[in-house]
Amino acid sequence: MSSADRMTQIKPVYKRVILELSGEMFRGEPPGGEPIDFPFLGELSRKLIQIRNMGVQLGVVVGGGNIWRGAEHGELDRVTSDQIGMLATLINALTLGGMLRKLGCSAFVFSAISINRVDESPSHLELMKRMERGEIVIFAGGTGNPFFTTDTGAVLRALEVEADAVLKGTKVDGLYSDDPFKNPNAVRYSELTCDDALNLKAGVMDLTAFALCRGKELEIVIFKLLPLDNMIEVILGHPIGTRIRGK
User: Fold this and answer.
1) Which of 3, 19, 66, 110 is deepest in the core (most CB within 10 A)?
2) Average pLDDT over residues 85-105
3) How many domains does one find in the chain?
4) Does residue 40 register a pLDDT over 90?
5) Domain coverage including residue 31
């Protein structure tokens, strides 16, 4: 049975979610030579529309690593490097928004850094109304401040719009006891609390994000983004990835 068939028979377990996508995912799979793989972006956009059509209110937080990786540019100070990274996320957000609109889906780009005539910065209440109307809201600029990661930005936006969960699509299929690429005996966890994740000091997600989620009515799901149908599996509550409870 395809994910399209399943979604007509099973209700989503979430009403409103934030999907976190790293910038590297915009390169496609396998990663191409260009910062953005448009055929892959089209496939991704169609899947996001499918999720929206399931009745799920959807926000997307994008990274910018396909365009700028600050840690690899030691010639610049951290603040300047992070500011460039925030601009890179806006490029990805505008591109994703444009693709969604091309496919007939209403999309709105919110940026934590203001650029006149490019983005808008409405209140969190207005963003929630847009999501309720079926618009896909794309968040760029992280938290708007240097020294914070996309992970922290995703949790912050989720708390602001009262989302049920942050869905972090990555290259690994969950949170492990050790690096699964280096240790074949590493164990994947199916469910944890934020306290557990903080104690593990897992490298798959920023610890500040776990700390921010701690004690909140928010769930974080770390899962392998590809194949893209995995997003549907997570939305339907199937046992995929690692689910981390705020409390």
Assistant:
1) 19
2) 97
3) 1
4) yes
5) 3-245
